[in-house]
Design a protein that fits this description.
Elements: H1 18-42, E1 45-52, H2 58-66, E2 74-77, H3 84-87, H4 93-96, E3 104-109, H5 118-121, H6 127-146, E4 149-157, H7 160-172, H8 184-189, H9 191-205, E5 212-216, H10 220-234
Parallel strand pairs: 1-3, 1-4, 2-3, 4-5
Amino acid sequence: MAKTQKAGESGDKPSMKRKEYEKELEKLQAELCTLQEWVKHKGLRAIVIFEGRDAAGKGGTIKAIMERVSPRVFRVVALPAPSDREKSQMYIQRYMQHFPAAGEVAIFDRSWYNRAGVEHVMGFCSPQQRDRFLELCPEIERYIVEGGILLVKFWLEVSDKEQKRRFEARIKDPLRQWKLSPMDLPSREKWYQYSKARDAMLAATDTEHAPWYIVPSDDKRRARLNCIAQLLRAIPYEKVSRKKVKLPKRSNKGAYDDVASLKGRRFVEERY
């Protein structure tokens, strides 16, 4: 069971050093590879949802998860704004087509909870549509879980001070400016509207069959490690025994100078 934690509690700890972080991350990534083999072996289907305030660290956490696993098993779903056609569909429809098949883990970088958050706060849906979503969502997720899909939901929570610092860093750094979306800067002005939307969402959709796990993320390194550790607890797995791999010897049948045969072809310029 996840630990109940007071808001801001993680801020009492000193920032984790890079060496310690990388050591712990390597251990967790090894366990993710073990989980991956179990998912394939058992034909499991899992959905992992990442939600949270802008600049809360969702992308970095997902990157840490994906770094050592196969994209054929762990798949990231990051949908753009809906097209006119998608707007005319049932709301959940555009997400369901990305649900996992056997042996897959679908990681949603934002999800159907857009309706409870950005769409509601920015006025992209009506209050009635948001209320209807909050009413139906727990039942839809019950059907998902009862259908055999493992559903894990993470909310990354960043403080006002840290979000401001991260936005300012993105504005100044050309390598990070691409992270600024059209919704990011308006979200700074609407901090408390997002807080109220978050509270209403948690009150309606934090259920026994599909609970939310809140991840304090001012310290990105601790947040990533805690999040991966919780993911490993949320999906029970065992180590799958594998046959011993033996590298076969290269056959000399049909041998020729296959290096000389590349002479005259276009090679990249060796600048480094």
